[in-house]
Every structure is written in structure tokens, then in C-alpha cells.
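Usage example:
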Amino acid sequence: EIVLTQSPATLSLSPGERATLSCRASQSVSNYLAWYQQKPGQAPRLLIYDASNRATGIPARFSGSGSGTDFTLTISSLEPEDCAFYYCQQRTSLTFGGGTKVEIK
Amino acid sequence: QVQLQESGPGLVKPSETLSLTCTVSGGSISSYYWSWIRQPPGKGLEWIGYIYYSSGSTDYSPSLRSRVTVSVDTSKNQFSLKMTSVTAADTAVYFCARVMTSHWYFDLWGRGTLVTVSS
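Running the assembly step on the lines above writes:
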């Protein structure tokens, strides 16, 4: 089974700052990786698929990059509504990473 | 637009069977794979299994395969989850979700339903 490790566990930044979230796979997943955002009490929302493609309706400040085993989700300029948990997911065995919590100072 | 809604008992006794249904409204269940995912309180996401609407073909998480069955009722636009021999470790919010066409990501989710396993 492919294990996804996300870091950091928590990211605390001010509005307008750049957020960089990492997801590392235990073996190569090519570019078959997605990112989700989950706010408290809500279902996850698909942000990025195939490492770098924004899903429908996702703001341009969210971008994804990477391939193989190392992936990054970047929020270029944090908005207060970006306070949430973020999860990565690979499509080979459909496992999720443990998540990163983004806090707004 | 298409919406998903989970339904079923919120409380299940240990060793009994958990049964949930997901109703697809505003669109057809056809042409997609459909999935169940769960999230224990305060923890991360775990994929449970999926089903293809037409063939009924399924696949399950290796860790849950022996206890889980996913089925579909196309006439009702519903798909279902059954999990046998539940324990407290199965307490979680259960989400139903649609698998994105030609990809294996989840592009549409229900709001989720909390199932507590307790006597």
C-alpha cells in the first residue's frame, strides 16, 4: 500500500502570506495525486487533480505541483476562508494523507 | 445540480451490521463509479470501497474487504454500504462520493452522516 505523508501538521500564517503544503508518497505515483480542502463540519472539496489541474470553480490562488513522490500545494495569498484541513490522495490505491491544518493568524 | 445524501441509523451496537444508503438527486447514477469514505472523529479520511453503476463491479480497501459490501439500485438512483461485525473503531462520519470520470478522485461528496458504534 502506498503511504502518503503530509507536512507540516499545522501551518499558521497571516492573511496575504504564501502557504506551502507538502505531500510525500512512499513510492512513485507519477502525477496521479489530488488535493482536497475540508472545513469543520463539511465534506472535503476537490481542489487539484493530477497534481496540477485545478478542479471546477477553484480560485487561481490554489496551485499544485510535483511528480513521482514529492508534491506541493501552494496557496499564493492566504484568505481568511482558506482556514481548513488539506488532504492529499493518490489514485492507485485511493489512500489519503494524514492532513495539514492551515490556521490564519 | 447533482447532490448526494447519506441516510441510515446513527447508532449501531457492537458486533451488528452498519447499513447506509446514498441517494443521488438532480442527476443520474449512470456513467459513474460511486464510493464510500469515512472519517473517525478528529482523524483523517479512509476510503472504504466503490461500485460501478452498470456492471456492479466493486473494489474495497484491503483492511475492510472481509466486512464490507457496496451495492447499487439504479432504479432508485441509490447505492448502499453494509459493514458487518462493527466495533467502536468503526465510529466515524461516513461520506458517499462520486468518482471523477476518467480519474480516480472524488469530485462530488455528500454531507456525511455520523455513525456511532456503542451498546
